[in-house]
Design a protein that fits this description.
Bound molecules: ligand G3I
Family: Belongs to the glycosyl hydrolase 10 (cellulase F) family.
Keywords: Carbohydrate metabolism, Glycosidase, Hydrolase, Polysaccharide degradation, Secreted, Xylan degradation
Structural class: alpha/beta
Active site: 233 (nucleophile)
Number of helices: 13
Distance between the termini: 9 Å
Order of helices and strands: HEHEHHEHHEHHEHEEHEHEHEH
Catalytic activity: Endohydrolysis of (1->4)-beta-D-xylosidic linkages in xylans
Strand content: 15-25%
Strand order of the largest sheet: 1-2-3-4-5-6-8-9
EC number: 3.2.1.8
Shape: globular
Helix content: 40-55%
């Protein structure tokens, strides 16, 4: 049988998974990670708290390990993430407003330069919006206003001229105020000539909340601005325990997301936020929820796997 990535590649796209360093010692896990996917995202190891835990002291060992795994398995890397309000070391949050821009530019320059030429894309700015479409308050927004986004993108382009530069967010997958805010931001950045190559739609879905409205049309309007789009962190959680009905609903969500990406020429690929329930972030954040991924905690394929396989054209 073809792999999910082989099926996606036949449609000009990648199919990828997030991973994290501790899991890379699990050989049953890495056997599938290394063979089924064409793209890897480090789930934590390129974030600010890992790469610059104290000011101007950089740590690339964990990120390098993920890049090295990807290289040895012929996989491209979506690097994640340079500027985010979360997993930010306390030294950044404690800076005087007048120091934040220099610290942000130095962080981007050092980290993006280190990985220049080795990564396909960067999530330069992660999760800039509140649910109502207003800009999220953060140390960056407070110091620079929304202009921090353009500043970050320019610094990333200067450090790595070949990586595709993305803004990435959640609950922007379908129509709504937050997606409209992202759209207006993209229009404005393009009009100013800011280096922006793509928009990432995280795709953290939950069967109890319904499928996003008009996802394909939402992706297409960004593509029509001349941007790539990508599904960057897909998972579909449920209230535990799993049963056949919930699995079937979950499968339709995976099908719908893959169909939307396949239907949009500029949708470059789909990344699931790890591939097995064994290493999903969901249960630790949403108590009583989980089973969000296409492989179960024993690394056995679930109905969601078959749904993805078939949506990618597998028979
Ligand atoms: O590294 C420490 C370890 O030393 C400590 O013993 C352990 C005890 O709790 O915590 C470890 O850090 C955890 C880290 O993951 C690494 O496992 C943090 O507590 C935990 O909060 C962190 O969670 C990550 C989360 O981002 C943080 O916001 C998840 O793994 C990661 O999958 C998740 O990914 C985010 C994306 O970056 C952005 N979009 C949403 C997505 C899901 O939340």
């Amino acid at each position: 049988d073809p792999t999910l990535h082989q099926l996606a590649a036949a449609k000009g796209k990648y199919f990828g998974s997030a991973t994290d360093n501790p899991e890379l010692t699990d050989t049953a896990y890495t056997a599938i990670l290394g063979s089924e996917f064409g793209q890897i995202t480090p789930g934590n190891s390129m974030k600010w708290d890992t790469t610059e835990p104290t000011r101007n002291t950089f740590a690339f060992t964990k990120g390098d390990a993920v890049v090295s795994f990807a290289k040895s398995h012929n996989q491209i890397v979506r690097a994640h993430t340079l500027v985010w309000h979360s997993q930010l070391p306390s030294w950044v949050s404690s800076l005087a407003a007048t120091e934040v821009q220099a610290a942000m530019e130095n962080h981007i320059t050092q980290v993006a330069t280190h990985y220049a030429g080795q990564v396909y894309a960067w999530d330069v700015v992660n999760e800039p919006f509140n649910e109502d479409g207003t800009f999220r308050t953060s140390v960056f927004y407070n110091a620079m206003g929304s202009g921090y986004i353009a500043t970050a993108l320019r610094a990333a382009r200067a450090a790595d001229p070949t990586a595709k530069l993305y803004i990435n967010d959640y609950n922007t997958d379908g129509a709504g105020a937050k997606a409209d805010a992202m759209y207006n931001l993209a229009v404005s950045l393009k009009a100013q000539g800011v280096p922006l190559d793509g928009i990432g739609f995280q795709g953290h879905l939950a069967i109890q909340y319904g499928f996003p409205t008009n996802m394909q049309a939402n992706l297409q309007r960004f593509a029509d601005l001349g941007l790539d789009v990508a599904i960057t962190e897909l998972d579909v959680r449920m209230i535990l325990p799993r049963d056949a009905t919930k699995d079937a609903t979950q499968s339709t969500y995976y099908t719908n997301v893959v169909n939307a990406c396949v239907a949009v020429t500029r949708c470059v690929g789909v990344t699931i936020w790890d591939y097995t329930d064994k290493y999903s972030w969901v249960p630790s954040v949403f108590s009583g929820q989980g089973a969000a991924l296409p492989w179960d905690e024993n690394l056995a394929k679930k109905p969601a796997y078959t749904a993805i396989y078939q949506a990618l054209g597998g028979i």
